[in-house]
Design a protein that fits this description.
Chain lengths: ~375, ~325
């Protein structure tokens, strides 16, 4: 299977019904890797479902679901190595889990507990983990793009063998930071994979209202960069294209833009009402005919690699794992109030020390009174 | 180029800044400079002149014309272990990168609960008096001071400029380093050989006096001196306090000078409303009112955009400072 930029066709490995669309032997992966992929797809969906329940129970203030986009996230994170860096947006949890993020920490993050490595500093969907090279996403749409490119520039300057992947949505491609970042990435030939999860909506705004180009991938042309359009609900295709770009970047052949064409199932976030803007039947069609998890299971079954028993076993195992992670997160205490002053700077400034003392005194008075 | 820098002992601020960059880049290979025209051109004010010859284009990076990219990329570099020193050609043009600076650079340590720090410097010339018009003359320190997570440093002379820049580069937190372009070449000072630090967060009494304190920074320090000279005729001894770091600031130095003189004039080039001087005045009012014997006066630029042809009418003068001094003393 040859992977080429700007073909005008969507790159795809398996059909909607799960039949191979191309000769898969050239991918060089076998059943073990397939099982790993499938496990991550199912796991990401399970973790996402559990996260959303927390909002519905009133235990979290916000949640942006990733359901429907699992193949884009899992397929693009699997080709990465531990030394590689990851910048995400508010809908990147699948990629972060594949990169190694602990599920318990993720739940603790949603609940605003101490176990959250970012200590409850941001609303759910903004977790980061230094040891895994996962930078905490910003809320400001697009800002992560210039930063990711800077990290990739540093990786080149320091002559490392690392690459950086940066996730953003279709809406983000209208922001200045996308264009500035694309330009910087190309000018310096930095090892950056700019990965657009085109789920066709930015909250309610549809792609054709967002941009006048037919695809997002073709925008790469303008920056002298390769652009690839891939079926974002086909985990094998996403994997193959991302691996191709990661390998090129690691070799020193520069950045690439990948557009993964996909669809989100949930509202934009727990604060959104998507019935106001989705055409009738659209969501149902995607769920029924294009679901990334079902599609890959169909593929496995078509290859005689999967059956109902295996499925039941996997679901049970994942259910237990998710429950255990949730239990660990729930046990974690909420952050201590005086920690609100920590990490503004490396050390407390005179003013922060002063304000900290005031809050401590207020708390002591409150405790007495 | 490098050899020349080392031999001389009298430095303008531009030369002092250049030697700080040069020596820090020699000391630590992770220090890199990036910005517009900073390579062969040496920057429009020549602060980075010659650096590219010594350190090459991987460490002296001419960037595309996009401040969001300069600040965003600098942050990404800092996270990956470089020590970027970004140059913004004029601080009036930092706004395309403002979002990256205040939303990302300033908050990275906090948002990540200390896992990631943004050790980087954003250098930029600021201030009026150079016939630069509205887009090459402003003093926007208040925006940056009002952003927790950023440090804001403004030198007023070549000696401090070098020592403060070195401290800023070595600091673990992001520093907005504002260079008073009006005095880039106005004075020379004697500099010791080799690198030295001037600590952040520490003000300096740049002239001692006992009757009134003029608290100021950057290009207004010489204006305060001029006022101090004029007030001598009336037998008034003016103490000039140079804040040097605006955030986090030296509260002890303010307490000491207020306790000594009991009269305060704060002097800034930026418009008065919402300005840094208001912060100092409020601090004095909250923490040191028992020493105060007259109104806390603010001398500032007018609450207008910065005018080109009427620059002289805009800029605070020593006469304005003298009037404020007399007003608080004769209360
Ligand atoms: C600069 C900025 N403007 C607006 C918002 C509010 N907002 C949050 S997400 C979003 C839509 C993002 O769409 P897209 O980039 O396509 O990502 P998706 O949510 O579809 O994954 C908007 C408008 C924001 N967070 N930042």
């Amino acid at each position: 299977m040859e992977i080429k930029p700007f073909t005008g066709k969507t790159i795809k490995c398996i059909e909607y019904d799960g039949k191979p669309a191309v000769d898969l032997t050239s991918l060089g992966i076998g059943p073990e890797r397939y099982f790993e992929m499938y496990r991550w797809l199912v796991f990401t969906r399970a973790v996402d479902d559990r996260g959303y329940i927390l909002v519905r129970q009133g235990r979290a203030g916000f949640y942006a679901q990733t359901a429907g986009q699992e193949a884009s996230q899992v397929g693009s994170a699997l080709p990465l190595q531990p030394q590689d860096w990851m910048y995400g947006d508010h809908r990147s949890q699948g990629s972060q889990l594949v990169k190694g993020l602990s599920t318990a920490e993720w739940f603790a993050h949603i609940l605003g507990k101490s176990l959250d490595p970012t200590a409850g500093r941001s609303m759910p969907g903004h977790i980061g983990r230094n040891s895994l090279h996962i930078v905490p996403p910003s809320s400001t749409v697009g800002n992560q793009i210039t930063e990711a490119v800077g990290t990739a520039m540093a990786q080149r300057i320091k002559k490392t063998d690392e690459v950086t992947i940066c996730y953003f949505g279709d809406g983000a491609t209208s922001e200045g930071d996308f264009h500035v970042g694309m330009n910087f990435a190309a000018v310096y030939g930095s090892p950056c994979i700019l990965f657009c999860q085109n789920n066709q909506y930015a909250i309610s705004v549809r792609l054709e209202e967002q941009t006048h180009t037919k695809t997002i991938a073709e925008k790469a042309h303008a920056y002298g960069m390769d652009g690839y359009l891939v079926d974002g609900n086909d985990v094998l295709a996403v994997y193959a294209v991302t691996k191709h770009c990661v390998d090129r970047a690691r070799r020193g052949d520069g950045p690439a833009l990948i557009e993964a064409y996909t669809y989100r199932y949930g509202p934009h976030s727990s604060a959104d009402d998507d019935t106001r803007y989705r055409p009738k039947g659209e969501l149902e069609m995607w769920r029924r005919e294009r679901d990334p998890v079902t599609r890959f299971r169909n593929f496995l079954e078509s290859q005689k690699l999967w059956d109902a028993d295996k499925e039941a076993e996997l679901l049970a195992e994942i259910k237990a794992q998710v429950a255990a992670a949730m239990e660990e997160a729930e046990k974690s205490p909420v952050p201590e109030p005086l920690s609100v002053f920590d990490h503004v700077y490396e050390k407390l400034t005179p003013h922060l020390e002063w304000e900290r003392k005031e809050l401590a005194a207020e708390m002591a008075a409150g405790a007495q009174g | 180029m490098a050899v020349e820098v080392k031999k001389q002992t009298q430095f303008t601020m531009v030369q002092a800044l250049r030697s700080a960059l040069f020596e820090e880049m020699e000391r630590d290979e992770n220090v890199v400079c990036l910005g517009e025209d900073i390579g062969p051109r040496g920057g429009v004010f020549l602060v980075t002149e010659g650096l590219i010859d010594r350190f090459g284009k991987d460490r002296v990076i001419d960037t595309p014309l996009a401040e969001a990219g300069i600040i965003g990329a600098a942050l990404g570099m800092a996270l990956r272990g470089l020590k970027p020193v970004a140059e913004i050609q004029f601080i009036d043009f930092l706004y395309p990168g403002f979002d990256n600076l205040v939303s990302e650079v300033a908050k990275m340590r906090y948002r990540s609960a200390g896992q990631f720090g943004a050790s980087m410097v954003v250098r930029s010339p600021y201030g009026g008096g150079v016939r630069g018009g509205g887009y090459h003359s402003q003093s926007p320190e208040a925006y940056y001071v009002a952003t927790p997570g950023l440090k804001v440093v403004v030198p007023s002379n070549p000696y401090d400029a070098k020592g403060l820049l070195i401290s800023s580069i070595r600091d673990p937190d992001p520093v907005v380093f504002m260079e008073p372009k009006k005095i880039y070449r106005a004075v020379k000072s004697e500099l010791p050989e080799g690198p030295y630090e001037v600590p952040l967060g520490k003000a300096a009494v740049s002239r001692a006096g006992k009757h009134v304190s003029v608290i100021t920074f950057g290009a207004m320090v010489p204006v305060a001196w001029e006022a101090a000279d004029k007030m001598k005729a009336d037998g008034v001894e003016v103490e000039v306090v140079d804040m040097r770091t605006l955030q986090p600031y030296d509260t002890d130095a303010i307490m000491q000078t207020v306790a000594k003189t009991g009269h305060v004039v704060v002097l800034q080039e930026a418009p008065r409303i919402g300005g840094y001087g208001g912060e100092i005045a409020a601090f004095v009012a909250e923490q040191a009112i028992e020493y105060i014997e007259g109104p806390i006066m603010r001398v500032a630029g007018h609450d207008t955009p910065f005018p080109y042809a009427l620059e002289k009418a805009y800029m605070p003068t020593s006469d304005r400072v003298c009037r404020a001094i007399k007003k608080t003393l004769n209360f």
